């Protein structure tokens, strides 16, 4: 029977060849729904957002939007003059909106052959307001594909101006087919409904042979893994601390180059913190996955990495970024990575405090709510049981 099936396939291929069509050119079978995930709202800016979703076959996408106080439009062009299209991911960048504006959008997907069309429901979103009087946001970290934890984080977390997913979304990208469900539909949750996503890269997010594909499906404000923005009185800088071992560690298979990226971010930090909206911000916060400080700082010799030895704090990042962060008067660095909640107040040597969220398991997971207004910037870290683990407050910096 097996042999007959094999002969049958060959015969089909031969017949197609005879007609001048190779087997590879034949139309693939249509299997499953065209749209695989909700439209994920990412990379909020003062003038727009980017919407990303997954499809099961070659398709075109566009986003219709309407303002709650009038105005409407369609975003249907990429940066190169093409209609957004892809066979796995559709990305539509919306621009030209008002700062702090309230909007709705729906994503429209059409199969390449024009035979199928899907419209999402209308969904609310808003742009960042750099001049707003107040802001609210949410921070998750180290979810590591733990569906129970993600489901509970999603249920517990309120909406906000943005959601920082502070790294280690996955374990390792061994399997290419884990990228879409992990990043765009984690635990089956519509997790950016009411809180647009800003991903901060963790060390596990860059592991495995398929990790290089992550930027295909994650939008950031300027297309890089480091970025800065104002939301009301808070200036936010997001940084990529890279791996927790040197780039040449054998476990990375020669796939990573974070040394140059740390240097580039160091130069960029000095430039961005000199811009008036960051230089003069009442509150100054940085997010990076690996902490820049830790409770017991051990220096690991280059040959000692592996066998359980990894960076608890990103010494190599701190050496490049510390002076710029201090000069900027960064008040707090918010991180994850250690799977252990911690708060290290500022010191004379390290004027920035270090807040660290918990781990992927239900008993160690945390989420952080941030709120700022003219009076103070407040962080409240809670466990999944609702218990408050840390409560930290900063007064506005004198400008
Ligand atoms: Fe982690
Ligand atoms: Fe980590």
Give short descriptive properties of this protein:
single chain, 399 residues, alpha+beta, Purple Acid Phosphatase, chain A, domain 2, 2 domains, six-stranded antiparallel beta sheet, binds fe (ii) ion
CATH superfamily of the largest domain: Metallo-dependent phosphatases
CATH class of the largest domain: Alpha Beta
Strand content: 25-35%
- Please tell me how large the radius of gyration is: 23 Å
In total, the number of strands is 21
Choose one word for the global shape: globular
**Residue runs with pLDDT of under 50 for 5 or more positions:** 1-21
Instruction: Tell me the count of domains.
Output: 2
Please tally the helical runs, counting DSSP H or I stretches of 4 or more residues: 7
Order of helices and strands: HEEEEEEEEEEHEHEHEEHHEHEEEEEE
The CATH architecture classification of the largest domain is 4-Layer Sandwich
- How much helical structure, as a percent, in the residues? 10-25%
Structural class: alpha+beta
The small molecules bound here are: fe (ii) ion
The average pLDDT is 93
* Biggest sheet details: 6 strands, antiparallel
Under CATH, the topology of the largest domain can be stated as Purple Acid Phosphatase, chain A, domain 2
N/C terminus separation: 80 Å
Q: Would you kindly provide a written description of the structure presented here, covering whatever features stand out?
A:
Helix 5 (258-272) runs parallel beside helix 7 (315-328). 42% of the residues are buried. The strands form four sheets. Strands 3, 4, 5, 7, 8 and 9 form a six-stranded antiparallel beta sheet that branches. By secondary structure, the chain is of the alpha+beta class. It is 18% helix and 28% strand. It has seven helices and 21 strands. It is globular and about 65 Å long. The chain has two domains: 40-126, Immunoglobulin-like (Sandwich), CATH 2.60.40; 135-394, Metallo-dependent phosphatases (Purple Acid Phosphatase, chain A, domain 2, 4-Layer Sandwich). The structure holds fe (ii) ion (2 copies). The site of one fe (ii) ion (FE2) has 7 residues, from loops.
